[in-house]
Amino acid sequence: MENLDYARLQMAFTLGFHIIFACIGMVMPFFMVVAHHKWLKTRNPVYKRLSMAWLKGVAIFFVTGAVSGTALSFELGMLWPEFMKHAGPIIGMPFSLEGAAFFVEAIALGFYLYGWKKLPEKFHWFTGVIIGISGVASGILVVSANGWMNAPSGFDYINGEFTNIDPVAALLNPAWFTQALHMTLAAFVATSFGVAGIHAFQIFRKRNVELHTKAFKIAIIFGAVAAFLQPISGDLSAKDVAERQPVKLAAMEAHYETEKGAPLYIGGIVDEENRTVTNKIEIPKALSFLAFGDFDAEVKGLNDFPDDELPPVAIVHYAFQIMVGIGTLLMFAGLIYFISLKKKKWLNNKYYWLLFIVVAPLGFVAIEAGWVVTEVGRQPWIIHQIMRTEDAVTPMPGMKYSFFFYLFLYTVLGITVTWLMNRQIKSLNQEPNEDGSNENSSQESYNRERARKNNPINMKNKSKD
Amino acid sequence: MLYIVLFFLLFSLLLYVLLGGADFGAGIVELFSSAKNKEHTRDTIYRVMGPIWEANHIWLIIMLVILWVAFPAYFNIIIIYLHIPLTLVLLGITLRGVAFVFRHYDAVVDKSQFWYNWLFRIGSFVTPVFLGMSFGALIGGKIIITEDYENYGFYDLFMQHWLNIFSLLVGLFYAALCAFLASTLLIGEAEGKARKHYARNSAFFTTVLVVLGFILISFGYFSDIKFAEDFIHNPVSLACVAFSGILLFPLWKFIKKEYRIASRYLAVFQVILVLFAALYAHFPYIIITATEEVSLLANLAPEATISNLAIMLLIGGFIILPGLFHLMRSFNMIKVLEKNEKKYE
Hints:
The complex is a heterodimer of chains A (465) and B (345).
Chain A: H1 3-42, H2 45-79, H3 81-87, H4 92-114, H5 121-150, E1 156-158, E2 161-163, H6 167-171, H7 176-204, H8 209-244, H9 246-253, E3 259-260, E4 264-271, E5 276-283, H10 286-292, E6 298-299, H11 313-340, H12 350-359, H13 362-376, E7 381-383, E8 387-388, H14 389-392, H15 399-428, H16 440-454, H17 456-464
Helix pairs in contact in A: 1-2, 1-5, 1-7, 1-13, 1-15, 2-3, 2-8, 2-15, 4-5, 5-7, 7-8, 7-12, 7-13, 8-9, 8-11, 9-11, 11-13
Chain B: H1 2-31, H2 35-70, H3 72-81, H4 83-105, H5 112-139, H6 154-158, H7 165-187, H8 192-222, H9 226-232, H10 235-246, H11 248-256, H12 260-280, E1 287-288, E2 293-294, H13 303-330, H14 341-344
Antiparallel strand pairs in B: 1-2
Family (chain B): Belongs to the cytochrome ubiquinol oxidase subunit 2 family.
Protein name (chain B): Cytochrome BD ubiquinol oxidase subunit II
Pfam families (chain B): Cyt_bd_oxida_II
């Protein structure tokens, strides 16, 4: 493999890593403030305990998302210096606004994490809301920058020069809305089903059922609603892609031949060499309708595009199938939740909980698959029809080592965070403190006291004294 | 409009050096404390730095965004030739960042704290060293800018300009600066024995800083590093550094008299002087390569971009700065300790 391939792998991996943490960091604050609000309203200590627990999760995910995001903002330049040199001045606006949103989020997080008992209750709660809103805002802004790569706008490209730059038009590029909507909903679906699944597992194992049921309800309602809205946004996205990036649409659907009244393929094995798709289910005329709202519209096939402008078809097609498949599944899971609101008996059925446990990680798989569709589907362009990825890559050799370095670092980090979450849940299942409260501070001082006793360094220290 | 952007760039740089620096420095103070004091320092850092911890580091991102949006050609050189030290900086930022949060938000406190603590302490020391080394590489005059990547070895193009004694000295100098800032800050946050401990620390790191600064400039001068030569021949830069040195005496007096606010502002002012001195001699030609000096203002982004960015920065600043100030005030970052004087005595 070449330098370019490793640079792309590194970008894919680090972006894929960051997306998960960014999504969780973006959505979890909403769960936290809902629980917090319920506590303020009912003064039921279970809700306080829950918001405290989610707060810790938010802190851990936020920092992991923040550091991996900092790394990414460097990597954009480090891996693709030619891209940043030209794109930076054009898409500076979403990035500078994103910086501001991120800053607001960090300030609000400072207030929220450290403000218990120190700030007026309502203001304190409100800072939690700000965390959520600014998180979503920064997500939307970053996706807008990505939208520009798919739908470059706000400049004239004449003889290889970028002129007449209009940063506002670049920010509001034609792809920003559909992409941002799709991504935001996806973040809500994935995080909500993920969190709900974790609590469903605890209910399934009959641990602290009261708390976990409350947690499950808060999380799943966000997820179920978002999962129902997602197909609408998916349809908007598909129509948008069909219009602006027909080659991406053809790759998503693995359509080689241009045809009117094109069928929708479900599944199928792509043979890129012979340009065929076997073992697929065909739904007649459905693709033409989904893409253009007309059963007889013409869908341009891959064969009608220049060979050197085709993305890797199989990867894009499979990723798209995975995304849509999971999206549909999660929509049904959401439906089952809504039905269970009427049929309370279901809540006693272990298969009900098992379902939510099984689907828990799927939303994240769908998010990753969706990004593969967007990013791989745009290849070989880094800026659609303007700049090729191979022309943007860093001249520095040895990206192979850089890739393995990040692979190792982020794998360790990912495992650590998973392990930390496991510990959070275990501690959540333990009985509250003797005084019945679950104060962060008392928990912490209790923990620290225990650490002091157990810590080998202090032991040594004590024996010296 | 360009001046607004430049102002925000320098302002972010300054705040990153100050706030990010104090944050790194806190870890360095912890690293060089005895086992007993480490624990106390750890808790003090959490109390003092915790609320603004995340915000301290966003200045780096703001700086980065300004560079890539408004000064793309300049940023391009930095990002290509400093790939390796910046990767190491990122490693440091990642490890110390997660370690800081893990050690306070892990649900269970056990032996894993040992790892979080050491990752945080070592990361706090190594990160500013690599940041300083990167800056040292930019001003060291050893970067070889070329289009012809084949004719040079990997070491020549991507290593030698940052992996040398001058850059290392700049790195250590910045780490010492961070530790000076943090220990001066921490003095005002402690009482009794701990206060004495931080005061001792502050004196120690100040000495290290002065000695390192002296070695740095003399080494640079005798190894014919253009930056150091210009620095010595520039009366304004020299005067700033000298003035900053003289201000150490009132600083020590304020610390002794326990004027928390005065000592903080004075320390900040000294750092501003040093930073100004470092930039003044060459501004805006901040990248000194083997053959040429690259101006920050060379090949600027188009006017539309600059004015757009300036407006964004003004709006952002209008929202963020009051918020940040309110945050610092809410958690007593800006408060006079003098009130507690009697209790302490």
